[in-house]
Structure to design on (139 residues):
Protein backbone atom coordinates (compact mmCIF):
# COMPACT_ATOMS: atom_id res chain seq x y z
CA UNK A 1 0.00 0.00 0.00
CA UNK A 2 1.35 3.48 -0.99
CA UNK A 3 1.76 6.39 1.36
CA UNK A 4 0.48 9.64 -0.16
CA UNK A 5 1.85 12.75 1.50
CA UNK A 6 -0.06 16.02 1.52
CA UNK A 7 1.21 19.13 -0.23
CA UNK A 8 1.01 22.44 1.53
CA UNK A 9 1.24 25.93 0.08
CA UNK A 10 2.33 28.90 2.16
CA UNK A 11 -0.20 31.65 2.78
CA UNK A 12 2.48 34.31 2.20
CA UNK A 13 4.14 35.54 -0.96
CA UNK A 14 7.93 35.17 -1.23
CA UNK A 15 9.59 38.55 -1.74
CA UNK A 16 12.76 39.36 -3.62
CA UNK A 17 15.38 41.31 -1.68
CA UNK A 18 15.27 44.90 -2.87
CA UNK A 19 17.26 48.00 -2.12
CA UNK A 20 15.45 51.21 -1.34
CA UNK A 21 16.03 54.07 -3.76
CA UNK A 22 19.63 55.14 -4.18
CA UNK A 23 18.66 58.74 -4.98
CA UNK A 24 15.64 59.37 -2.77
CA UNK A 25 16.76 61.46 0.19
CA UNK A 26 19.86 62.56 -1.73
CA UNK A 27 18.01 64.73 -4.20
CA UNK A 28 15.51 67.52 -3.78
CA UNK A 29 11.82 66.70 -3.94
CA UNK A 30 10.77 70.31 -3.58
CA UNK A 31 8.94 70.59 -6.87
CA UNK A 32 5.73 68.85 -7.88
CA UNK A 33 4.92 68.19 -11.54
CA UNK A 34 1.47 66.77 -10.78
CA UNK A 35 -0.94 68.00 -13.45
CA UNK A 36 1.71 69.68 -15.62
CA UNK A 37 4.35 68.56 -18.10
CA UNK A 38 6.74 71.50 -17.58
CA UNK A 39 7.64 73.56 -14.51
CA UNK A 40 9.85 76.66 -14.56
CA UNK A 41 11.86 77.44 -11.43
CA UNK A 42 13.87 80.53 -10.48
CA UNK A 43 17.42 79.72 -9.37
CA UNK A 44 19.25 82.58 -7.60
CA UNK A 45 22.81 83.42 -8.62
CA UNK A 46 25.25 83.73 -5.72
CA UNK A 47 27.87 86.48 -5.49
CA UNK A 48 31.48 86.47 -4.38
CA UNK A 49 32.21 87.39 -0.77
CA UNK A 50 34.19 90.53 0.06
CA UNK A 51 36.14 91.66 3.08
CA UNK A 52 34.20 93.69 5.63
CA UNK A 53 35.39 97.30 5.91
CA UNK A 54 34.91 98.95 9.31
CA UNK A 55 34.28 102.46 7.96
CA UNK A 56 32.62 104.13 5.00
CA UNK A 57 29.31 103.75 3.21
CA UNK A 58 29.77 100.29 1.69
CA UNK A 59 31.06 98.27 4.63
CA UNK A 60 29.76 95.01 3.16
CA UNK A 61 30.76 95.79 -0.44
CA UNK A 62 28.95 97.45 -3.30
CA UNK A 63 25.24 96.53 -3.30
CA UNK A 64 24.06 94.62 -6.37
CA UNK A 65 20.57 93.51 -7.36
CA UNK A 66 19.98 89.80 -6.85
CA UNK A 67 20.22 87.93 -10.17
CA UNK A 68 18.57 84.64 -11.14
CA UNK A 69 18.29 82.10 -13.91
CA UNK A 70 15.19 80.19 -14.98
CA UNK A 71 15.45 76.43 -14.90
CA UNK A 72 12.92 74.41 -16.87
CA UNK A 73 11.93 71.03 -15.45
CA UNK A 74 10.18 68.80 -17.97
CA UNK A 75 8.54 65.48 -17.22
CA UNK A 76 10.02 62.93 -19.62
CA UNK A 77 8.61 59.72 -18.10
CA UNK A 78 4.97 58.84 -17.54
CA UNK A 79 5.01 55.16 -16.52
CA UNK A 80 2.15 52.92 -15.43
CA UNK A 81 1.40 49.32 -14.51
CA UNK A 82 -1.69 47.22 -14.03
CA UNK A 83 -2.45 43.93 -12.30
CA UNK A 84 -5.53 41.98 -11.37
CA UNK A 85 -6.15 39.48 -8.61
CA UNK A 86 -8.95 37.18 -9.62
CA UNK A 87 -11.15 36.36 -6.65
CA UNK A 88 -11.51 32.70 -7.60
CA UNK A 89 -7.77 32.21 -8.16
CA UNK A 90 -7.01 33.96 -4.88
CA UNK A 91 -9.49 31.76 -3.00
CA UNK A 92 -7.87 28.69 -4.55
CA UNK A 93 -4.47 29.96 -3.34
CA UNK A 94 -5.49 30.41 0.31
CA UNK A 95 -5.95 34.16 -0.10
CA UNK A 96 -2.16 34.56 -0.39
CA UNK A 97 -2.36 37.50 -2.79
CA UNK A 98 -3.12 40.87 -1.24
CA UNK A 99 -3.42 44.07 -3.26
CA UNK A 100 -1.46 46.24 -0.83
CA UNK A 101 1.40 43.71 -0.66
CA UNK A 102 1.51 43.44 -4.45
CA UNK A 103 1.54 47.23 -4.84
CA UNK A 104 4.48 47.49 -2.42
CA UNK A 105 6.33 44.71 -4.28
CA UNK A 106 5.72 46.40 -7.65
CA UNK A 107 7.00 49.74 -6.38
CA UNK A 108 10.06 48.20 -4.67
CA UNK A 109 11.03 45.79 -7.46
CA UNK A 110 10.12 47.75 -10.61
CA UNK A 111 9.08 51.39 -10.11
CA UNK A 112 11.83 52.56 -7.74
CA UNK A 113 14.72 51.00 -9.71
CA UNK A 114 13.30 52.37 -12.98
CA UNK A 115 13.01 55.89 -11.51
CA UNK A 116 16.56 55.66 -10.12
CA UNK A 117 17.88 54.63 -13.54
CA UNK A 118 16.19 57.59 -15.26
CA UNK A 119 17.57 59.99 -12.63
CA UNK A 120 21.06 58.49 -13.00
CA UNK A 121 20.98 58.89 -16.81
CA UNK A 122 19.77 62.49 -16.55
CA UNK A 123 22.47 63.33 -13.98
CA UNK A 124 25.17 61.70 -16.13
CA UNK A 125 24.01 63.59 -19.22
CA UNK A 126 23.99 66.91 -17.32
CA UNK A 127 27.39 66.22 -15.79
CA UNK A 128 28.90 65.49 -19.22
CA UNK A 129 27.33 68.68 -20.61
CA UNK A 130 28.64 70.75 -17.69
CA UNK A 131 25.16 71.57 -16.43
CA UNK A 132 24.26 71.91 -12.79
CA UNK A 133 26.66 74.79 -12.21
CA UNK A 134 25.11 78.08 -11.32
CA UNK A 135 26.55 81.17 -13.01
CA UNK A 136 28.85 82.97 -10.59
CA UNK A 137 29.33 79.90 -8.40
CA UNK A 138 32.84 78.67 -7.78
CA UNK A 139 33.88 75.64 -9.81
Amino acid sequence: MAINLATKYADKIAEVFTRASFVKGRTANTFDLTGVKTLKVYTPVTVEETDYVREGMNRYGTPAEMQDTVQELRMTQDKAFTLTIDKGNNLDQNLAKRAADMLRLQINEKSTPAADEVKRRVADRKRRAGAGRRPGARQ
